[in-house]
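User: Just a sanity check before I run the rest of the batch. Below are the structure tokens for the first item. I only need the designed sequence back.
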């Protein structure tokens, strides 16, 4: 009971902080996710035993450049392609029985683009036509939360078939499918409130976010398993580390950004 209360209080504080940043101002939102990125990088460094602080300087420089200075969409697209290539590399590592050996340079590049790139694109998503689309980014947060929550609830209730036991023994196929179905339902409801994209596009976006977010969760689980730890950190009582909270969002962000750009192109 005490653990449930602690998890609930931490979750409430996290959601209030997120909502406050989104609805307060775009600058508050930007600063919050820049800070979240630093926290995730710190935990990533510990997981992969990456020494030094160069990755923080590189992340801050990259974040500042692409959020405030770079206006050329071609440069943004190059960053998106690099980030997705790094994510695909992590997917290959996820499905490879023998872990890929990570050199110091690989650890640096992966951290910079898997986490740094993910946080940058997560920050970029609500900026559309020079406006800050609050409901769009909140809709994406809701899709991730609905998927995670109902995947857990359905999996705990009727889950029997293990999804990826070698990496995450508690996840089940039934839970994954249940989370996906509820996320589609949430996408339909969100579409009634946020008309920036169509209901069909919301459903497609939900599919992209659920699939990539679930894979991101498994990738972080593999990092933790390799490090021999249960959580990436302890900054959030009852929830583990910041990377434990944001692994799905960070990995899904460049794919969601790409999907939204495709919607803009074909609309």
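Assistant: Here's the designed sequence for the first item:
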């Amino acid at each position: 009971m005490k653990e449930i209360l602690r998890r609930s209080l931490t979750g409430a504080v996290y959601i209030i902080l997120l909502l406050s940043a989104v609805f307060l101002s775009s600058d508050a939102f930007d600063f919050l996710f820049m800070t979240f990125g630093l926290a995730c990088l710190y935990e990533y460094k510990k997981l992969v035993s990456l020494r030094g602080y160069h990755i923080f300087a590189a992340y801050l420089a990259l974040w500042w450049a692409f959020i405030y200075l770079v206006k050329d969409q071609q440069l943004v697209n190059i960053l998106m392609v690099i980030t997705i290539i790094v994510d695909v590399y992590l997917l290959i590592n996820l499905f490879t029985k023998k872990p890929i050996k990570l050199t110091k340079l690989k650890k640096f590049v992966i951290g910079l683009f898997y986490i740094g790139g993910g946080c940058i694109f997560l920050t970029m998503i609500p900026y559309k036509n020079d406006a800050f689309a609050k409901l769009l980014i909140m809709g994406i947060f809701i899709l991730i939360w609905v998927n995670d929550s109902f995947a857990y609830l359905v999996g705990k209730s009727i889950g029997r078939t293990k999804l990826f036991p070698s990496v995450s023994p508690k996840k089940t196929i039934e839970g994954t499918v249940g989370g996906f179905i509820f996320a589609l339902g949430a996408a339909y409801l969100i579409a009634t409130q946020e008309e920036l994209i169509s209901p069909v596009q919301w459903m497609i976006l939900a599919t992209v976010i659920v699939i990539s977010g679930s894979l991101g969760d498994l990738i972080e689980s593999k990092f933790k398993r390799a490090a021999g730890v249960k959580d990436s950190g302890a900054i959030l009582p009852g929830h583990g580390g910041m990377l434990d909270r944001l692994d799905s969002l960070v990995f899904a962000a460049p794919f969601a950004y790409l999907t939204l750009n495709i919607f803009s192109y074909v609309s």
